[in-house]
Amino acid sequence: MIPYGRQDINEQDLQAVMEVLKSDFLTQGPKVPEFETQVAQKVGAKHALAVNSATSALHIACLALGLGEGDWLWTTPITFVASANCGRYCGAQVDFVDIDPITFNLSPKALAEKLTIAEAEGRLPKVVVVVHLCGQSCEMRDVHALSERYGFKVIEDASHAVGGKYLGEYIGNCRYSDITVFSFHPVKIITTAEGGMAVTNDDALAEKMHLFRSHGVTREPHLMTHEPDGPWYYQQVALGFNYRMTELQAALGSSQLTRLDRYVEQRNQLAQRYDEQLSSNGLIQTPSQQPGIVSARHLYVIRLELDEIKTSRKEVFEGLRRAGIGVNVHYIPVHTQPYYQDQGFKWGQYPNAERYYQEAISLPLYPQLTHDEQDFIVEQLRAQVTKHQG
Ligand SMILES: *Cc1c(COP(=O)(O)O)cnc(C)c1O
Question: Taking the complete model, does pTM exceed 0.85, yes or no?
Fold first, then answer.
């Protein structure tokens, strides 16, 4: 089976992890701060906090922004459930903003409309989580302008987008947001097995996230209620978690990071090859790339022209799987999940997201995907969508 995504592990990665295993520190040593500094420098952020997943990063980001009971978190329905769940972890209510049908990202226009209504009803969001779907940045200038006007905080869920650029700068410099979050799950752009990172330019937010990722415990005298009792002393000043990244993961991450730009380049070249081979086909819509944006190309999502083809998405999907192609669907709209339906959400509320879901298929895309494999995928896809076409 050709998977839809997979990690690339080389000799340098193995060496880096082996060295840690033989060293004094498996956790809480020098490798995590090293990796944090490297990511911060790479993306142009002041602070970076490594954690054990992007989900944990989203959680401590929301906590640092003060999200809690009685607050609202808004996000897009077309994302992984974690972008919404982080609001629920904090006891906040979650609501959704429909997507833009061209970029598949949260629509700034729909956001503006929803904010107008929410202001009148006195239920403006405290936090909006935007997701750079497939690795392509949202229109951050528009989101930022709205955040200034309505006073909400912005988290960029850049789980798909490390190494991508917005208006010539790396995603993660937080020019238009408060905090940006990356995922290092194996299917993402670079990996630490499990792992994530939150980056910010705000000293106070960084300090809070630092506390929340490790039990709310500090050894910093300036954060304590009184002078330390002695050199052994620490204080728990908040209710935190154990969300720490290990030294093994950080060493792997540092090693992977040296290949980030190359990975993004390879992904873009493969995506362009898909574009060229599929765009002439009126039965398939290839993903659009917006000017001023370099997508990290985590996913290559095509949409089927369901009015034109004489088969169904399910049939196409199953046909490709039978041919050994590990296609996938990203994502099932979060508001249609039973957990969120129990919160009162219904099918029909976000028509652009729901329509996208009916039509979308993610084709395999990862740096070592060969041209031969790609040609085979294109050929099989063509055969599937032209079935019964006469
Ligand atoms: C993968 C992903 C996450 C969660 O990442 P983990 O590191 O697995 O916790 C969150 N949001 C989006 C959009 C993702 O794709």
Answer: yes
